[in-house]
């Protein structure tokens, strides 16, 4: 248990090592950091450190380790699962000032960047050399690379190019014990355990990244983007199945349903086809001749599946216009509903029609609406549960529907998160997806990195395992629970 | 656990069961994850040291185990469990030969994007050793393609990580932690992979150069071109011309057109049946090194290995090379030099396989970053150090 004096002692240690401007202690300013992109969880941190260098991060973590004080790392704060939600008795380490791109090495297809560098800036720096950074969350104009690493947040182009984890070559990590270690190398297949593979997507529970070496991908010679309007999501789903079944791997294949289109129109006037019950955004990239050939096949398949209108982007501006509706969809929903919950479940792609129908039924039962925006190629759904918090009971019903949607995903063999992470929001759902033994085994990694459990505690796992416990079956209450330090959901 | 429960699964070890020269006292041949769990619980109770084997195609690799009471042979666990073509995923038992898996996927026009570089490799062996092959340029490696695993821990507890959907970030990615761990963290009994469609057309284009160094510009021209190679391989033997081969995959028309562009870059090419196997034979009689490097240094590293008398073959387009020699004295002397060179470019030189006289004088794994953390991970997973003791980096 953290005593109130511990954070004070951390502050005293840091005052001798960091400038006063790097330390935020004023209650009003602290409140600036009380949540990340998931607004309905709010916790005011005890102390905020605005790190200006890797050394600042190391110094802060070392002070926390010495005093047993929890710490949470935060980049741009765009996370959607509460992964950067502060700890009330802990230190929030903000890395957004670490924003230098140290090296762009196209001949080695890599770039070395600070964790606070904005995702899109990596591609902008690499583009003159004919390269780009493939992971592209919808928030790529503002989200940080460190956050992408923490959450393994991918985006629309994961289908063809793989996930953030596939694009991180190495990370300098400050471990929860305050040591610096480099995981991975500039070369592939570093010998030893793939600790980097475990760290990417560990949501800040294994340490804080202070430098990230990312893989750069050759900019494609040709990119073709299609917007196709369908009467129904089933028709659009048939087109997706046809494309995948034909052995075509689009760079991206995204779907929006009628309600999501309505929201996007209200927000950014994206001018998607009138009366569309669903739209697909399909992007192919690669060598010009391949793209041309496969794009013609995709257009034909969409037509055969019932697309009543198809538009092909003639240039980058038109491509951006097509993507604008899709990329703004989350924020746009605010235009048609006072409140909403963004879900992030995953299903086997072939289960899509059945899951969408069932989702509609679940929403109807609760008198709520669900807008759907998703990565159709890999089955990563982003249902937006719309509600009005001021209407009695709606907030609870929305929460319940949101959970029911995750159950639906799991019932079809899917996952509770495809790119947003578990964070604070979904920790309680982890036992639905994983057994106690599964979770216990994951926590063996946690114990190796963070034996005192101070790195972003309370995230991912509903009940932490005490490091030092031997693995295996235990009877009676968990020691953490018995000690009053945690509860079982 | 009563001996009668295990008896049908266990037999005495023989010389043919040897792991890097160490003969196990007992061999278990489980047929299911539950069997493996029972075997491991019993082994834990008895304090047995354990090594896992698939088909044994790479059992001479790595440092010999410091102790070996029980060999867990997974060759009976050889079934493809689930192939969902529409979802581009497959699950299989760890003892399934990669070749059998590919055969099962072929009717659907799909494949696991990993090459069979060591004949008879099982998918468990692929995961344990992280050997991928030429197509890694386009499709990634075992590490990138595995999306879920079932693992039996040293204490017999069965755990799953990942899942059966391509996109999934729930919990730690233990699948990746298992890849390349040489069976020292747990027994992987099942794995799920993402698949890729088999392309309509595929062709290798080969050009000869005087040496890897002389091919350096050609390599760079292809790697940084827009032809999207699926593989960029080098094959170089001392005293003979170096072969540089580029694999193109895609549509018939696209491959034909890109072939012309590769010829523009490389000059006159021939088609040549490029061997996917590692250089030399992985049989414990030759020394086999894995050399990793940043991309731009790969030709230089290949050249250095050739100059030291090695047959070099590998993915020069990504910086992963394999080097083989049958001359033990030469191999022993060269490891240090190659370690220095690869180290300078952020890579490593690992001795995968070697005869005893080489093993006796070289550090097989060499220096490894983050070793302290690795030891802590090993301690958490296997506190009694019973899984493949001593076979891995830093004596793990």
Which terms summarize this structure?
heterodimer, A: 489 residues, Alpha-Beta Plaits, 7-stranded antiparallel beta sheet, 5-stranded antiparallel beta sheet, 34% helix, 19% strand, globular, B: 396 residues, alpha+beta, Vanillyl-alcohol Oxidase, Chain A, domain 3, Glycolate oxidase subunit GlcD (chain A), Vanillyl_alc_oxidase_C-sub2 (chain A), oxidoreductase activity (chain A), FAD-bd_oxidored_4_C (chain A)
How would you characterize the overall build of this protein?
The complex is a heterodimer of chains A (489) and B (396). Chain A has 489 residues and is an alpha+beta fold. Chain A folds into 4 domains: 4-94, 2-Layer Sandwich (Uridine Diphospho-n-acetylenolpyruvylglucosamine Reductase, domain 2), CATH 3.30.43; 101-218, Uridine Diphospho-n-acetylenolpyruvylglucosamine Reductase, domain 3; 220-335, 2-Layer Sandwich (Alpha-Beta Plaits); 337-421, Alpha-Beta Plaits, CATH 3.30.70.2740. Helix content of chain A is 34%, strand content 19%. Chain A has helices at 4-15, 27-31, 54-67, 119-126, 145-151, 158-161, 195-199, 233-245, 258-268, 288-304, 316-327, 329-332, 352-365, 394-411, 430-433, 436-449, 479-482; strands at 23-24, 47-50, 71-74, 91-94, 101-105, 110-113, 131-132, 168-174, 180-184, 208-215, 217-218, 222-230, 252-257, 278-286, 309-312, 339-342, 369-375, 380-387. In chain A, the strands form 4 sheets. Chain A has a 7-stranded antiparallel sheet, with helices on both faces. Chain A has a 5-stranded antiparallel sheet with strand order 5-6-10-8-9. Chain A has a 4-stranded mixed sheet with strand order 1-2-4-3. The radius of gyration of chain A is 23 Å and the shape is globular. The two termini of chain A are 20 Å apart. Chain B is α+β, with helices and mostly antiparallel strands. Chain B is 28% helix and 24% strand. Chain B is built from 13 helices and 18 strands. In chain B, strand 5 and strand 6 form a beta hairpin. Chains A and B meet through strand 9, helix 7, helix 8, helix 10 and helix 16 of A and strand 9, helix 7, strand 11, helix 9 and helix 13 of B.
């Amino acid at each position: 248990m953290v005593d109130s004096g511990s954070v004070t002692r951390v502050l005293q240690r840091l005052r001798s090592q960091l400038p006063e401007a790097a330390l935020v202690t004023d209650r009003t300013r602290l409140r600036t950091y009380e949540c990340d992109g998931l607004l309905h969880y709010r916790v005011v941190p005890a102390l905020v450190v605005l790190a200006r260098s890797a050394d600042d991060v190391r110094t802060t973590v070392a002070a926390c380790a010495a005093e047993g004080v929890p710490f949470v790392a935060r980049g741009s704060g765009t996370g959607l699962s509460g992964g950067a939600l502060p700890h009330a008795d802990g230190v929030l380490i903000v890395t957004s000032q670490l924003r230098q791109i140290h090296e762009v090495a196209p001949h080695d297809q890599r770039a070395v960047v600070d964790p606070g560098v904005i995702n899109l800036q990596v591609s902008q720096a690499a583009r003159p050399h004919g390269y780009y950074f493939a992971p592209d969350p919808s928030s790529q104009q503002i989200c940080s690379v460190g956050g992408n690493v923490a959450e393994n947040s991918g985006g629309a182009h994961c289908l063809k190019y793989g996930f953030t984890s596939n694009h991180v070559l190495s990370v300098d990590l400050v471990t929860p014990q305050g040591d610096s270690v480099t995981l991975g190398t500039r070369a592939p297949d570093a010998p030893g355990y793939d600790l980097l593979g475990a760290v990417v997507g560990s949501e800040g529970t294994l340490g804080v990244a202070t430098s990230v070496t990312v893989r750069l991908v050759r900019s494609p010679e040709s990119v073709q983007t299609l917007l196709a309007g369908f009467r129904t999501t089933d028709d659009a789903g048939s087109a997706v199945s046809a494309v995948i079944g034909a052995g075509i791997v689009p760079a991206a294949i995204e779907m929006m349903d009628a309600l999501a289109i309505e929201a996007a129109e209200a927000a950014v006037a994206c001018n998607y086809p009138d009366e569309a019950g669903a739209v697909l955004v399909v992007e192919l990239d690669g060598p010009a001749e391949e793209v041309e050939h496969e794009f013609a096949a995709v257009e034909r398949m969409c037509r055969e599946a019932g697309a009543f209108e198809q538009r092909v982007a003639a240039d980058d501006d038109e491509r951006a216009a097509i993507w604008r509706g899709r990329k703004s969809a989350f924020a746009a929903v605010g235009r048609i509903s006072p409140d909403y919950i963004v879900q992030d479940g995953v299903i086997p792609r072939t289960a899509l029609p059945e899951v969408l129908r069932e989702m509609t039924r679940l929403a109807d039962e609760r008198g709520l609406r669900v807008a759907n925006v998703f990565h159709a190629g890999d089955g990563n759904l982003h249902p937006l549960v719309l509600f009005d918090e001021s209407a009695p009971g709606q907030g609870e019903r929305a929460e319940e529907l949101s959970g029911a949607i995750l159950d639906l995903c799991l019932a079809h063999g899917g996952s509770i998160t495809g790119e947003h992470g578990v964070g604070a929001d979904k920790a309680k759902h982890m036992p639905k997806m994983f057994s106690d033994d599964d979770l216990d085994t994951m926590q063996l990694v946690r114990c190796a990195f963070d034996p005192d459990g101070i790195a972003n505690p309370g995230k991912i796992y509903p009940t932490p395992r005490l490091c030092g416990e031997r693995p295996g079956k235990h009877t009676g209450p968990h020691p953490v629970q018995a000690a009053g330090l945690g509860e079982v959901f | 656990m009563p001996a009668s429960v295990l008896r049908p699964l266990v037999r005495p070890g023989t010389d043919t069961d040897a792991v890097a020269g160490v003969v196990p006292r007992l061999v278990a041949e489980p047929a299911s994850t539950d069997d493996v769990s029972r075997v491991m619980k019993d082994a834990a109770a008895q304090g047995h040291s354990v090594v896992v084997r698939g088909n044994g195609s790479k059992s001479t690799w790595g440092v010999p185990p410091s102790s070996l009471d029980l060999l867990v042979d997974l060759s009976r666990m050889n079934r493809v469990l689930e192939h969902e073509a529409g979802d581009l995923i497959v699950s299989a038992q760890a003892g399934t030969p990669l070749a059998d898996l590919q055969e099962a996927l072929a009717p659907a026009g799909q494949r696991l994007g990993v090459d069979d570089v060591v004949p008879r490799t099982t998918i468990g062996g692929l995961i344990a050793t992280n050997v991928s092959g030429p197509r890694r340029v386009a499709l990634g490696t075992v590490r990138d393609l595995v999306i879920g695993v079932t693992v039996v821990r040293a204490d017999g507890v069965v755990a799953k990580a990942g899942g059966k959907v391509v996109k999934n970030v729930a919990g730690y990615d233990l699948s990746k932690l298992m890849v390349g761990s040489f069976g020292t963290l747990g027994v992987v009994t099942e794995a799920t992979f993402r698949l890729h469609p088999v392309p309509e057309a595929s062709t290798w284009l080969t050009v000869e150069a005087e040496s890897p160094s002389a091919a350096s510009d050609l390599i760079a021209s292809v790697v940084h071109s827009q032809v999207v190679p699926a593989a960029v391989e080098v094959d170089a033997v001392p005293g003979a011309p170096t072969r540089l081969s580029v694999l193109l995959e895609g549509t018939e028309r696209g491959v034909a057109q890109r072939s012309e562009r590769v010829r523009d870059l490389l000059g006159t090419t021939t088609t040549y049946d490029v061997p996917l196997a590692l250089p030399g034979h992985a049989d414990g009689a030759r020394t086999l090194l894995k050399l990793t490097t940043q991309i731009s240094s790969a030709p230089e590293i290949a050249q250095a290995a050739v100059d030291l008398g090695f047959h070099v073959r590998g993915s020069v387009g990504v910086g992963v090379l394999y080097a083989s020699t049958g001359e033990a004295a030469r191999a022993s002397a060269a490891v240090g030099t190659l370690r220095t060179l690869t180290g300078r470019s952020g890579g490593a030189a690992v001795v995968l396989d070697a005869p005893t006289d080489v093993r006796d004088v070289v550090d097989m794994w060499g220096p490894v970053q983050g070793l302290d953390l690795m030891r802590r991970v090993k301690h958490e997973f296997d506190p009694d150090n019973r899984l493949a003791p001593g076979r891995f980096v830093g004596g793990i």
